[in-house]
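Model the whole thing, not chain by chain.
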Amino acid sequence: MSDRRLPIHPAQRVDRSRPLTFSFDGKSVAAFHGETIAAALCAEGVQTLSRSFKYHRRRGLLCAAGRCPNCLMTVDGVPNVRTCTEPVRDGAVVRSQHAWPSLENDVQGVLDSFDALIPVGFYYKTFMQPRWLWPTYERALRRLAGLGRFDPTLEPGANSDVVHLHTDVAIVGGGPAGLSAALEAARLGADAVLIDDQPRLGGHLQWHLLATEGTTPDYQVAERLAQRVRAEPRIRVLSDATAFGLYEGRLLTVIQRERMSKVRADRIVVASGGFEHPLVFQNNDLPGVFLGEGIQRVIALYGIAPGKRAVVVANDNRGLRAARELKAAGIELAAVVDARVDSDAALRTLGASVALAGYTVVEAHGSKRVERVSLARLDASGRPTKGSEQTVAADLLVLAAGWEPNTTLLAQESCSLEFRGDLGARFPTGLPEWLSVAGEVAGAATLDGILRNGTQAGLRAAVLIGLGDAADRAASTAATTGLEPSGSVRPTMAAHSNTKEFVCLCEDVSTKDIKHALQEGFDHIQTLKRYTTVTMGPCQGKMCHHTSVELCASMTGQTIAATGTTTTRPPAAPVPLGLLAGPAHNLIRQTPCHHRHNESGVTWMDMGAWKRPLVYSTVEAECRAVHEHVGIIDVGTLGKLDVKGRDAAAYLEWIHPNRVANLKPGRIRYRVMLDDAGIIVDDGTIARLGDDHFFVTTGTGALESVEQWLEWWLADGARCVHTTNITAALGAVNVAGPKSRELLSRVTDLDLSSAAVPYLGLAQGLVAGVPALLLRIGFVGELGYELHFPAEYGDYLWSTLLEAGNDLGIAPFGVEAQRVLRLEKLHIIPGHDTDALSNPFEADLGWAVKLEKPDFIGRAALSRLHGQPLRQRLVGFEMTDGTLPFEGDAVVAGNAPVGRVTSAKRSPLLGRTIGMAWVPPDLAVEGSLVHVKTQDRVSEGRVVLKPFYDPEGERLKG
Amino acid sequence: MSFLLACPNCGPRDVYEFRFGGEFGSRPRPDAPAESWSRYLYTRTNEAGVQKEWWYHRGGCHAWFLAIRDTRTNVVVDVMRPEAIS
């Protein structure tokens, strides 16, 4: 065991009885269960964990909390994993990123010496000429910069879950304030969801081994609170859970491994605590520099002492506690400095070799890691005094002087953040009444204050939703408690110009870069950010936002409040896109006859969510069967609406441009539907089943909108009409072909003679014992019947009809054959042959428009269009040279497009390519030549105005 | 956009269960001038504030209803069944 490992302690998350191994850049590393990858590497003595984004400088463990970019590595092929929070898995393959040939010897580290040539924004000014080299520059620069490599062959992870939770009070943060708030809210009877991003409850107390107040060590205070929370049935705890978004409607989005939880709460309490950001000084990014909470985590949670001699830089009691924790772990305090000039007394109790009040750090020295630290005295204005420097030998530099409240989530809600000079940070104000803060993020600084403040927040949240008795309500209106000031003081940002003072570790932005950007005119915090890319890296500004605002303020002579901030948007922490995509549900709709089609050798196609048969054998064979014998097609996807009521006839008459009221019971009519701009939106059929009863069919894709449309005009309740969507309740098949009557007569007693059921007539009765509605219509141009029947008979009826027609040459036909057949008859498909500008006059449906009706949807537009010259006409055409154009190809005159092809198919029966196209009116003459630009050629066709096949419809009406 | 909308039949639901149906307005008389029809079909008030609008409960009871919503904050002030208006 390495000498960096400390004795076992109950606060540790590590189980030393369960050893593991993993590999790091090819070398085997010994670890224990419960360790993080970075902690195990730290115990092994690995100091450099990564190379920085631009200059390839060495970077080591800094925050140890999953915020900074220093520990990013590729783990089992997944890039950019934060190894300081990622638990070790036995056999894991861990690789460093972005260093070549190795992390220790990265040749790109030479860039660090050429930083003067690649200052901030260099890519806006250089590496652009000559222009023909730009792609080369881009490739090279992309290779030099960047983080991990993505492996496109990697299988996507398991499907992610989405869980919806509804609760009274949602609490973000499982530290002392959050735990207290949850317990208090539950005591008053509220249900609570507690969201905590650590594996165990307790917040920052978990890594404080000493007692801050009284005699109970902090981590034990945390454990007792956590035990009470775990025992409270009203509190649901989400651990390892990061709340990354706060959205309108009191919606919190939470990521937990492969699960996203969407939490809706009546009241939300944010007890997110705070975190530290690094100070800015020369070489502040050397391995060996730790944040105060970071090194305490490494010591307490993982039992590792990352060095032997530490310099601690403090500006409040937090820093002094960090020094005490280090000393208790056996780390020598080479120096402790505190920016507060009056901290002498407190400093003397620490037992440090050097203890200086009113001092700060100005430089870290070392080639690969911290070796020496330079300290300087602060003058009255808070700037380091030249000439006062002292240098101390150390291998650890602990920065505990940059604490700020964790307001990332709150800032999404655009609550105001008010800069409190006395507290040295921005605290939330102006919160909506359903959102409150508790604990350190609200401004509490002592443990006692945090607990009182948290409890009060829980009480108030519960009282606001109506819980609690009179005493609770009175207590909830008392003044906010626990917010005693921490007395910290900040070293003012000096206008440094050194190039190795890093503000943004993610993007390698130094104070010199900030200064240059300001000089170039990017002196607003928003433009400064965009030009320098400060705060735009993986830490999302956690390490650098505060500092960049301070620098911008001090270098432009403005107050911090006037400088403002950049905008905070979700997610508050990185979230994989796959998780946001949610579970990979593949929704499929199947018709009632679906399962029979596989037996006939079907090729499927997708029509929206529907699975439809595209073809079974060949299009030629299927078309021939329909023309010569009988074919059967599954049309179960058609929209079917049952419309009933005293006013149904008048209503449908008003909705459609054609006449409906005079349709006799037992008869069917083609329906085309328009919107009030006179545009075609749908077509289908209306069958009148009775005086007050209609059966309406719509196009497959239009059903939802037609149903909504019909319901909307009925919404005022003025008409007695009821529409019911019975699409899923019915199966439907179209039996078409000269022998269709013969086939059906074998399985029904209904009289299907032309006299009894003429073209556009209907019949109702049993077909093969199944109650059915037969509509004699003719979309595919042959004698045929559309059968509608209860869905549960789908499989049975399909098989029965196929069997009954076996000796008649029956064949199932699919959508492809149907498309050819309907095109031979020039039957349009709205949405395919028409678009959002197509009116019925132009689409050759003028016959369906009865302007003499006093009113109908679209009448106002059409009455104005009537008699005016048409802009275009929808016509049929056949190609003279046999070319098959693509649907969408342009109709051209000369070189100019004047129309387009909407449908085009080869007709086996006619032996020609036929189609439909929009053409200028002067071309819409039988026999006119049209030219189609297809596949880079211009091909010739001829306009056909009457159906290609059976133009008089004799076969249909027989 | 993730506000809650209360369907008169089903109660408060995620707004994505619904389809927005446009601003509430009246269809012009059949013989109204072209200008009225043009305005009705092609222009919107586009209120930055409280407006009355149609919603359809697509993922639920399929009812059409009206809501009064502040478009600046997505706070829904009221919902009502359409029969209540004339």
